[in-house]
TrEMBL record:
Keywords: Membrane, Transmembrane, Transmembrane helix. This is DUF4396 domain-containing protein. It comes from Salinicola endophyticus. Residues 65-97 are annotated as: Disordered. Residues 101-241 form the DUF4396 domain. The chain crosses the membrane at residues 31-53, 104-126, 138-161, 182-203, 215-236. Residues 70-91 have a biased composition (Basic and acidic residues). It comes from the Bacteria.
Length: 244
């Protein structure tokens, strides 16, 4: 029964992610990294993720954009926006065209995208190698997941900071670490807590080559998203992170 429900939710997640990927190809996001983040969100938010995308993140279609060269204009607008962010740094401003809760929600998906990608990449490695930390394969799995999530999470922050501002690579990396560390830790804590519960209740081991493992990971990522939401709110309020 668990395997059947696992496949239902996993396939729903894949379908949602594919629908988002197809849609962002026709409606590219103003921030390029969100073209990746939204489909990843669909993987752990089956169907609900599509609603969130349409409500909070869907961009205008290419056909609706005026026929002119926007490349230079967009770059200038992004740089101006980045300067405005810096000016308002201490005021915790969020994206002006969304209610704050939505702005924080989208920022949390941005954090969750990097974390999820890191977890997806490292979980099969942990299972295949039997990597252990302090004699525990569970700790080994969690450690690899944290490293992968942190690397991808910081990368997801670094790329838009570099694209939208004048900061050099070093400063952009520092800003990315400041913006992502607290929310990433909060995400991973929520994820780990659920996987420990799942280990005691439904799984005897963390086997990334089974459907129930990834179903439990879907739930774990949803919980991680929930635990990262307050962290993103705090970071935005303090001007450390910009609402989206």
């Amino acid at each position: 029964m668990l395997t059947m429900w696992s496949w239902i939710f996993l396939l729903s997640g894949v379908f949602t992610a594919l629908a988002m990927a197809f849609d962002v190809a026709r409606r590219p996001q103003p921030m390029a990294i969100m073209n990746i983040t939204w489909p990843i969100t669909g993987l752990y938010m089956p169907l609900v993720g599509w609603w969130a995308y349409c409500k909070m993140g869907r961009a205008a279609p290419k056909a609706a954009v005026a026929q002119q060269d926007h490349a230079g204009h967009d770059q200038h607008a992004q740089r101006h926006h980045a300067h405005a962010d810096q000016h308002d740094h201490d005021h915790g401003h969020h994206h002006g065209d969304k209610p704050k809760w939505q702005s924080v929600f989208v920022s949390a998906t941005h954090c969750g995208g990097g974390c999820t990608l890191g977890d997806v990449v490292t979980a099969p490695i942990a299972t295949a190698t039997g990597f252990a930390l302090l004699g525990s394969t569970v700790l080994g799995h969690f450690a690899l997941a944290f490293v992968g999530a942190y690397l991808f999470g910081v990368l997801f922050q670094y790329l838009p900071i570099r694209a939208m501002g004048d900061a050099g690579p070093g400063q952009a990396l520092k800003d990315a670490i400041k913006a992502d560390t607290l929310s990433l830790i909060a995400f991973q804590i929520g994820m780990y807590a659920w996987m420990l519960i799942a280990l005691q209740g439904w799984m005897g081991e963390l086997d990334a080559f089974t459907a129930p493992f990834w179903f439990m990971m879907q739930i774990a990522m949803l919980i991680g998203f929930a635990t990262s939401y307050p962290a993103n709110w705090i970071l935005i309020n303090r001007g450390i992170k910009h609402g989206m």
